[in-house]
């Protein structure tokens, strides 16, 4: 949850003798924000750990390896101390010393094997977890309504899917096993130290409270810093995606330099945030080193004094020096892992924020599949607004009979595209009802509705792959013969046959390598193959040359036969044969009728038609 200003939403204020109260309120608000951040981080951590449940068998094996590695670190110094007291100090027992050192080598070899095994196993778990999170994110993105994408840049979504999940994988695959190993190593070392000399152990632990306090302080700073880092890298990704997608426009308007400057600005913000996070974490490591050196000095000084007093043996002192060094090694690893954990939690918060995004447009609990339709469509007093303060449609009503071609015309911003978006239920109406064959669209499943609809947009989107795959996109079980028949009906077969590999020719992202007209013909072939009962054509011929328009119009005539069709076109000459023409202006349906009827009416349609006719003559 994000807020701006103080508790009242207006920020701290001064004057009027209430300064003290406002200062207290500001402190309370800051504490509230801190509590909310902690709650978010805690919830993110629990949900992240929940992804590990399917791998509990592997985690059990990893735990065994972690315990084995921790035991080796606890036993090693004890063997060194025993060798010092029994086989070196009294009268020198070479055989005993050799056997002890052999045992020490075996202990450390087993510990090394366990450590390497746990890292390899945890790396595999991390990769599987990464895959699971990315699948969940992608599935959620696929289910989000179009309104979400109107407000959220694609680059930021890609950053969450790729960059943020990679940060989590790094923590789970590498740092988490270090955390487990370090914790168990600490427990083993502390127990061993207490067994050998409780007094010297307590003295050795005197610096740990300082370590814990500093860890808490640095973790809070680091979490905020890494949160800013994740947000700024998402902003950089969003800007990069936008600039690449719009490179033609940028070059055409000579805006590449300005684009470079804007990218440099956003990149600098990310660099600043990253450097801030790095500065915080890099200051923590030397602190751990200083505390480790201090603890070693304390043990050496006080332990030497106890040894001179005969209260501990030299072997115990030697073992304690090794234990203290081993004690702070896992603390150092924990500090490093803790830093990675802050970055991971910041990334997790962004990911789960996306996964938790409510789906405003979803099937009703009792929604039923839409039966095979005849194609009757009715808008009943429909109003709609993307923003409640700015209505787009106002009390629009009309009926389309099965098999009719309905053209929707009007000036830019009249609400034409909104009508077809409501028909496809990309959005829900604000008021009124949209029906297909008498069924309120809110009472049927979206999948069953859209399976009986086909859309040919102004710029048909083609995916990277073969031409055949793009035509087959709306009906995956179609045979090659059916694909070719659809392309032939769409007047696309001729140019497809001229390509190097025909229907198996590869095309690039967004259909690169094909002309605008060729992409439209493939889009029409895709719609023909899907054989929808209701067809939507959104400016299908507005961006092509006259010759290609003739081919597209011929293909559309084939496509329109026997289907209820809604056609949006700025070129009014393409819709003269429509059964009904709806004229929208400022969100209201102001005229309806055939072409001849509307021209005779001498209203807005007649004005638009005459204006285009004069332009065509000139």
Describe this structure in words.
The protein is of the alpha/beta class and 618 residues long. It has 2 domains: 46-355, ABC transporter type 1, transmembrane domain (ABC transporter transmembrane region fold, Up-down Bundle); 377-617, Rossmann fold. It is 64% helix and 10% strand. A hairpin with an 8-residue loop joins strand 1 (377-384) and strand 2 (393-400). The relative contact order is 0.07. Residues 1-39 have low confidence and may be disordered.
Describe this structure in a few short sentences.
By secondary structure, this protein is of the alpha/beta class.
Question: How would you classify the quaternary structure?
Answer: single chain
Instruction: Give the helix proportion (percent range).
Output: 55-70%
Number of domains as seen in the coordinates: 2
Residue fraction in strands: 5-15%
Would you count the extended β strands for me? 12
Kindly, what is the distance between the CA atoms of the first and last residues, rounded to a whole number of angstroms?
Answer: 58 Å
Annotated CATH homologous superfamily of the largest domain: ABC transporter type 1, transmembrane domain
What is the class of the largest domain in the CATH system? Mainly Alpha
What is the number of helical segments per DSSP (H or I, 4+ residues)? Answer: 19
Rounded to an integer in angstroms, the radius of gyration calculated over CA atoms is 35 Å
Stated plainly, the CATH topology of the largest domain is called ABC transporter transmembrane region fold
- Runs in which pLDDT lies below 50 for 5 or more consecutive residues are 1-39
The outline comes out as elongated
What can be said about the biggest beta sheet? Answer: 6 strands, mixed
Task: Assign the structural class, choosing from mainly alpha, mainly beta, alpha/beta, alpha+beta, or little secondary structure.
Answer: alpha/beta
The neighbouring-strand order within the major sheet is 6-9-10-3-11-12
Looking at the overall shape, the CATH architecture of the largest domain is Up-down Bundle
Mean pLDDT: 77
């Amino acid at each position: 949850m994000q807020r701006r200003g103080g508790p009242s939403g207006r920020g701290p204020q001064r004057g009027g003798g209430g300064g003290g109260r406002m200062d207290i309120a500001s402190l309370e608000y800051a504490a509230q924000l801190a509590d909310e951040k902690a709650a978010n981080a805690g919830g993110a951590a629990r949900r992240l750990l929940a992804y590990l449940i399917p791998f509990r068998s592997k985690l059990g094996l990893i735990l065994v390896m972690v315990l084995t590695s921790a035991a080796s670190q606890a036993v090693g110094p004890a063997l060194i101390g025993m060798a010092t007291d029994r086989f070196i100090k009294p009268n020198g027992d070479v055989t005993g010393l050799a056997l002890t050192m052999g045992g020490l080598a075996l202990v450390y070899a087993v510990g090394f094997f366990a450590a390497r095994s746990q890292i390899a196993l945890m790396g595999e778990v991390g990769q599987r977890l990464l895959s699971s999170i990315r699948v969940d994110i992608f599935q959620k993105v696929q289910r989000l309504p179009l309104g979400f994408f109107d407000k959220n840049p694609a680059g930021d979504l890609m950053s969450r899917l790729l960059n943020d999940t990679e940060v989590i994988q790094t923590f789970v695959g590498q740092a988490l096993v270090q955390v487990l190993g370090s914790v168990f190593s600490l427990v083993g070392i502390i127990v061993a130290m207490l067994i050998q000399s409780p007094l010297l152990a307590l003295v050795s632990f005197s610096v740990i409270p300082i370590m814990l306090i500093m860890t808490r302080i640095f973790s809070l700073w680091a979490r905020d810093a890494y949160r800013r880092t994740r947000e700024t890298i998402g902003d950089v990704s969003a800007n990069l995606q936008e600039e690449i997608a719009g490179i033609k426009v940028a070059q055409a308007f000579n805006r590449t330099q300005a684009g470079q400057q804007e990218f440099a600005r956003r990149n600098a913000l990310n660099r600043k945030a990253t450097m801030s996070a790095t500065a915080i974490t890099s200051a923590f490591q030397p602190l751990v080193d200083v505390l480790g050196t201090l603890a070693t000095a304390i043990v050496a000084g006080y332990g030497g004094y106890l040894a001179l007093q005969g209260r501990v043996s030299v072997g115990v002192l030697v073992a304690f020096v090794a234990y203290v060094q081993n004690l702070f090694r896992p603390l150092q690893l924990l500090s490093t892992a803790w830093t990675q954990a802050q970055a991971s939690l910041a990334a997790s918060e962004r990911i789960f924020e996306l996964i938790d995004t409510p789906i405003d447009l979803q099937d009703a609990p009792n929604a039923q599949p839409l039966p095979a339709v005849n194609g009757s469509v009715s808008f009943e007093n429909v109003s709609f607004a993307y923003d409640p303060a700015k209505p787009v449609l106002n009390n629009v009503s009309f009926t389309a009979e099965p098999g009719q071609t309905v053209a929707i015309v009007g000036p830019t911003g009249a609400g034409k595209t909104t009508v077809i978006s409501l028909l496809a239920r990309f959005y829900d109406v604000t008021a009124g009802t949209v029906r297909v064959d008498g069924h309120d669209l809110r009472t049927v499943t979206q999948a069953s509705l859209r399976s009986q609809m086909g859309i040919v947009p102004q710029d048909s989107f083609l995916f990277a792959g073969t031409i055949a795959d793009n035509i087959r996109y709306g009906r995956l079980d179609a045979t090659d013969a059916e694909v070719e028949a659809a392309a032939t009906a769409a007047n696309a077969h001729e140019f497809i046959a001229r390509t190097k590999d025909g229907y198996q020719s590869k095309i690039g992202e967004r259909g690169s390598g094909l002309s605008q007209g060729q992409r439209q013909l493939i889009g029409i072939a895709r719609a023909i193959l899907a054989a929808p009962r209701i067809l939507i054509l959104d400016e299908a011929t507005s961006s092509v040359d006259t010759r290609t328009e003739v081919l597209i119009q011929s293909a559309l005539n084939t496509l329109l036969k026997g289907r209820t069709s809604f056609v949006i076109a700025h070129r009014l000459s393409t819709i003269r044969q429509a059964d009904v023409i709806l004229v929208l202006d400022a969100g209201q349906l102001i005229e309806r009728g055939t072409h001849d009827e509307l021209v005779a009416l001498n209203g807005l349609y007649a004005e638009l038609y005459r204006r285009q006719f004069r332009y065509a003559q000139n």
